[in-house]
Specification:
By secondary structure, this protein is an alpha+beta fold. It has five helices and eleven strands. Strands 6, 7, 8, 9, 10 and 11 form a six-stranded mixed sheet that branches. Strands 1-4-5 form a three-stranded antiparallel sheet. Strands 2-3 form a two-stranded antiparallel sheet.
């Protein structure tokens, strides 16, 4: 009986190995699993029109993939600005409309004001950044920064070495005040929301620009 049982067991194992042999993975290798390839999202008509606007302004940029980060934070229809004609620091993801208006403001608002009021070219715009998953200061509501739809402007560096900061210059000498008031007024024509040190203490050291809301809030 023992011999017969062993023979039956051997025949059973041989049959199973024969049936499964084609699915065995050699030792030291990992079976590859094919994953479906997701097609790249097609830009919306609004995004394509905005990309064309940036190109018409000779702005160098790279479209960014849509991303969500949890907590309601996201970067959708955003771009990375590479060259707007004036170097700018800390530029992360920006919605295309924000990027287009920022580039136009820097070129047609800031630079002419610096030439006429301060007598020098702007060589760098310093910012506190763009995307930041955080609420509005003192509020539970998400900031437009959490949607890559806002930028904070801290200072302007001139070709002659002068640095005009919002914090020091807002109540500075006559020319500095005039320059900052002028670029602030120019921003109010391009962004939906513009906040300055006159708005509240949280903005004592920067301008806040965003494309949220219905527009027309300038302080």
């Amino acid at each position: 009986m023992t011999l017969l049982r062993n023979m039956v067991l051997a025949m059973f194992m041989a049959t199973m190995l024969s049936a499964c042999g084609s699915n065995l993975v050699p030792r030291g290798r990992v079976a590859s699993v094919s994953k479906p390839v997701r097609p790249a999202p097609v830009p919306t008509m609004e995004a394509r029109q905005c990309f064309a606007k940036l190109q018409s302004q000779d702005v160098a940029f790279t479209p960014l993939p849509d991303r969500t980060f949890g907590g309601g934070c996201s970067a959708l229809n955003s771009v990375k600005l590479l060259d707007i004609g004036v170097p700018a620091t800390n530029l992360g993801a920006m919605t295309c409309p924000l990027a287009a208006n920022f580039a136009a403001w820097a070129r047609y608002g800031v630079q002419p004001a610096a030439r006429s009021i301060l007598g020098a070219e702007i060589v760098r715009i310093e910012t506190f950044g763009t995307y930041n998953c955080r609420p509005i200061a003192g509020s539970g509501k998400l900031s437009e920064h959490a949607h890559s739809n806002a930028i904070d402007i801290a200072a302007f560096v001139l070709a002659d070495g002068r640095k005009i900061s919002v914090q020091q210059g807002w109540q500075g000498d006559r020319d500095t005040r005039q320059f900052l008031k002028t670029v602030h007024a120019s921003a109010c024509k391009r962004f939906n929301t513009v906040l300055s040190p006159d708005y509240n203490a949280a903005h004592h050291d920067h301008f806040h620009f965003d494309m949220g809301g219905k527009g027309g809030f300038c302080r």
